Amino acid sequence: xxxxxxxxxxxxxxxxxxxxxxxxxxxxxxxxxxxxxxxxxxxxxxxxxxxxxxxxxxxxxxxxxxxxxxxxxxxxxxxxxxxxxxxxxxxxxxxxxxxxxxxxxxxxxxxxxxxxxxxxxxxxxxxxxxxxxxxxxxxxxxxxxxxxxxxxxxxxxxxxxxxxxxxxxxxxxxxxxxxxxxxxxxxxxxxxxxxxxxxxxxxxxxxxxxxxxxxxxxxxxxxxxxxxxxxxxxxxxxxxxxxxxxxxxxxxxxxxxxxxxxxxxxx
Length: 267
Ligand SMILES: [Zn+2]
What we know:
This protein is an alpha/beta fold. The chain has helices at about 70-80, 135-145, 170-175, 185-195, 225-245, and strands at about 10, 25, 40-45, 45-55, 80-90, 100-105, 105-110, 150-155, 155-160, 180-185, 200-210. The longest helix is centred in the last third of the chain and has 22 residues, at about 225-245. Zinc ion binds next to loops.
């Protein structure tokens, strides 16, 4: 293992390719291959953080081509225990409006063929995914977002689709009718892989626009491409302010169950 260089890991999503100035850049190789880019190590409020743009800094890896195992394992090698995983998402519910942040506590996996485990044998390891996100990180993030005046929803379900295509109208209507809030292409297996290595993971879903199935509903006004870009850019700015406030407040000693995810998982 590399020496412990960071305690908190942050993945950058679409439009979020750098976080800190005066950082140390490191290339890491993992048993699962190379992560999406070099990682940058820096400090926020006295806490050591590692940053990695999950699509690569030139957005060269679309969601279905990201090496999620390498990205998560690289964080583990640096000593990271808690991960902040923001992502751009579409809304599946009229009341979940563009510009809002949803801190999801559940996910639905609609991906296929992704390498989604570190445990291919010979020791059978079945890690619970009942609650795939860290409750402790979510509560701290919720309070922090409220203090900053960011419109935020505590809890929600993200449907993760394979991509690169977007949903059909029928698929999108189905997801909405289930009561799920947001749709995205990267939360699975990223969040679950963190759990397999006993790391905490916080989802921050940045709502960019409404998914295709909500178009034409009376309460959804038509939006221009320029408006989507404006919301997208503003979300990433709000996200950075949230991260700078949130990181120093995260517990430095963990008591959550994420840190004991492998207890009872092996047979
Ligand atoms: Zn946790």
